[in-house]
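During the practical work, I worked with a single protein chain and the tokens that describe its fold, as given directly below.
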Amino acid sequence: MSIFEKWNLESTILDAIKSRGWTEPTEIQIDAIPFARKGRDIVGQARTGSGKTAAFGIPIIEKCQTTGTPQSIILCPTRELAVQVAEEMNLLQGKKGLVILTVYGGTDIEKQAKKLANGCDIVVGTPGRVIDMNKKGHLNLQEISIFCLDEADRMLDMGFFPDILWVLEKMPNRSQTLLFSATFPDEVLNIAEQFMTDAEHVMSDDLEVDIPEIDLYAVRIGRGNKLWVLGRIIANMTEEGQMLIFSNTKRMVDVIVERLGKFQMKAVGIHGDMPQNKRERILNDFKTGKERIVVATDVAARGLDVDGITVVVNYDLPDDTESFVHRIGRTGRMGRKGEAWSLVSKEDRGSVEKICSTWGLTIPFVETPALPEGVNRDPVRKRDDWDEVADSFGMVRINLDIGQNDLTKRALSDWIVSQAKVPEIVVGEIIQSNDSSEVEIHVAKVAYVIDIIKARDYNGRKIKPVIVES
């Protein structure tokens, strides 16, 4: 007798499980379903593919009846996931007869409203459209008793938590809350405590992530020159290649697309603020090869399975280590060669170390790729990025080929101040050897001071300033 049979599930659910060929529950199902069937609040940690939909779906289906009135609502971050969850739950209920409807943006609200008016037992939707439906009187949340939040960490990334709290306030008869997430940032746990009571925390041991075998590279570069490096990577891409560029924010997605376009490099962006039909069109064009370069946020890239992706670029390093693995896994598919580049600014270096130690990866730091043969001009010109070489106090160190054999620290500081006509505070610490000096100059004036030093003589000799990399 299987564990499913020992649980004495409703016959319709058990028949549906058997018809799917499931013999035993997954770890997250074993841990979560018994508590959820007892009405307990659940905080469950499990990644996509671990069977978490059934972990909350089976208890919800059992408790809901064919009344035509919504008794449970499941919120998801994207339309794609909402559709997937609804399909899975329809399979799990077998012949029970519950009406499970999806409610999401990007489609005709009136068509969805008509379906709701005909009766519904379980709603699966995205926060924004659920709120719209409630405000317009199409969806009554008063009688909802079970609330489920799927992929809570992505909800947080997309800024949905104010909407979620709004929805929760409209459910005075809520008696059970189920929250599932692959990761649990402190913000998610803190907010969960506000609307959950004595929750049972369960975790799947199946949180391992497959690490793809692709070529990994990292380039140390300041934010001001990331586009220069990206231009070089694009210039080296093969004609049949496709590139997926990741940024952490919707705003930055738009900025990267706009700037690439300015330099005659066509790219399209995809993020959660775009109309659903536009996102679907872009994804389809990318899959067919019509679009070669897509810039996306992590959330928008979910479900983006394109075998032809040859290059992934982390324009921004992700906030969590697992996202990095999901990102790089977009390339090197079907036995093809793939490579992933990470553009690492000074503040990102700790993130790279954490990613490497967490997943046992080696990500070598390399020079910016050279321009391909026959190309002698950069798509994007490199510029001075003083903030990247400045320390936490805003000081940039420059080396001068003049030392204590020529003048004292005080004399050198006075000479710089007098020649550049800058306040003394602009010049920081000076370290000297016999024939060289390392001088700190404030980032606000360093470019100007360097230009002045290059243009002036000291006792008839030219001085060559060189930036000291931090």
